[in-house]
Fold ABC-2 type transport system ATP-binding protein.
Amino acid sequence: MTAVLSARSLGKRYGRRWALTDCDLDVPAGHVVGLVGPNGAGKSTLLNLAVGLLTPTAGSIEVLGAPAGATMEKVGFVAQDTPTYARLSVADHLRLGARLNPDWDKTLAEERIGRLRLDPSQRAGRLSGGQRAQLALTLGLAKRPDLLMLDEPVAALDPLARREFLQDLMEAVAEQELSVVLSSHLVSDVERACDYLIVLVDSRVQVSGEIDHLLATHHRITGPRREAKSLPRDQFVVGESHTDRQSTFLIRTEQPILDPAWTVSQLTLEDLVLAYLGRRTETDPPAARPVLEVQR
C-alpha cells in the first residue's frame, strides 16, 4: 500500500495540553478517505501538521513520501473555516492562486467559477457560506494536487449546500484521479463521498480500511447470554451488551459465523463508527464523553 500520509508516534502540545498524542496513521493513495472522530479528537491538528502549518512536538509525519511541508505544491488544503479573503473578489482569488501555484490550471478554475455561477467581480465577503466553500474548493483543485485535504469543509453549511459541495468533490476526484482526505464528524458526509474510513479518537486509530470491506466483516450477533471470552478467537469483540438471558455482540471477523445459536445481522456505517467510538468511552465519566454527530 502506497501511503500519501504517514504518521508515527505523532504528537502536538499546546502548553500543558496535548491536542494530539501518540498518533500512528497510514492514509492510502487512490482513495477518498473519511477521517472521522468526535470534536477534539485531533483531526484538525493532524491536518494542520500535515500541511506544515504546525510543527510536531513529538514523532514524525510525512506527506507524499517527504517531510510535511516539503511537497506543498502537490497538496491542496481547504481549512475548517473554508478561508477566503473578504475584501478580494472571486477573480482576485484566481489571480492569487495562479501566482502562488506553479501548476495552476487556469481553465479548470475559470470553468468551475462559471459553472457555479459565481460573479468574478463579487467580493468574497459578500458570498454565501456555500459559495465561499466552493471558491475555496476551486482554489484547492486548480493547483492540480496529488493530495487534497479538507478539514470539515461543509460542517457549517445547510444540507443543500453540503450536498452540492460533496457532489462537486466526487466529480473532481473522478476527473483528476487525486487522493483525498476528508475530515468530518458527520457520518453522512463519509457515506456520501468516501470509500475508505479511518476512525480517530484521542489521536488513536480505532479502525481503518475500505468501507465495503469493513461493513462485510463486521456483524451484530444476538443469542443466549454468554461471555465474550467464550467466542471463537477469530471473532474480535468491538462492543457488547447483555440482559439476563440474552447477549448482543458487535464483532469483526473474516470467517463465517457457524454457531446456529446466533442471529446475525449486518451493520450500517453509523453503527460501525459509533461502536468504535464507544470502545474508547466505556470507562469515561459522562461529562468527558465526546459526541459524534450523525446526520442524514
